[in-house]
Amino acid sequence: MNVNQNKKVLFLTDIENGLEPILQEATNTSAENMLTIQSYGASISHPYGEIMRSVIFAIYQEDVEEIFVVGTKDKKTSAGNGLTQLETMKDKIQTLDYLFQNCKPEFLGGTVDEWLNENSSDTIEKSVDMIRHHPLVPSYVKVRGLFVNHKGGKPSIAEVPDVKTGQAMPDHCLS
Q: Which InterPro entries does the UniProt entry name for this protein?
């Protein structure tokens, strides 16, 4: 996974300490050419949301030519699981679950628990696909997904296979 050392590379990562040195080594990217956007789960939940906006600004203002969406292998957001168990949240979650299940446009189906604790491999694949097919992302920008696996004490990196959906927006946006 050799990256041209003179070009800017954007990493959308999970909020986890210690990923930058691992990614620099794995992608052969120097610190001065590395830009990082951190979010819980390294996910882009909406094609016109704040994280996607930051990605687009990075592409045009920093001349980013390659983007890596980086997740931690099979990690689930433990904080999300804790939120759904709080007694003070139960009424709010019940209301939101109703909205999720009745597919209001701003909610993409499922439950609050599924939304908060989405599988990291699915999240990374969807985010990569959303960036690749976004109308404001130039075709020359390479977008790849990576998983960092910390099993065995030594981190390993695996590339996410390409998703073949070709659809970056939810179905309700296409009708």
A: Carbonic_anhydrase, Carbonic_anhydrase_sf
User: In this structure, what DSSP letter does residue 161 have?
Assistant: P
For residues 55 and 64, give the distance between their C-alpha atoms in angstroms, rounded to a whole number: 9
Name, in order, each residue with C-beta under 8 angstroms of 61's C-beta and a sequence gap of 6 or more. Answer: none
Kindly report, residue by residue over 47-62, the tens digit of the pLDDT: 999 999 999 999 999 9
Burial call 136-161: b when 16+ CB within 10 Å, e when fewer: ebeeebebbbbbbeeeeeebebeebe
Alpha helices in the chain (DSSP H): 19-27, 50-61, 78-85, 90-101, 112-116, 120-132
pLDDT digits (tens, 9 = 90+) for 148-161: 886 655 666 667 77
Most confident residue range from 38-47, 92-101, 102-111: 38-47
The answer to whether the pTM exceeds 0.90 is no
Distance CA 68, CA 124 (A): 10
Alpha carbons 13 and 124: distance in angstroms, whole number: 10
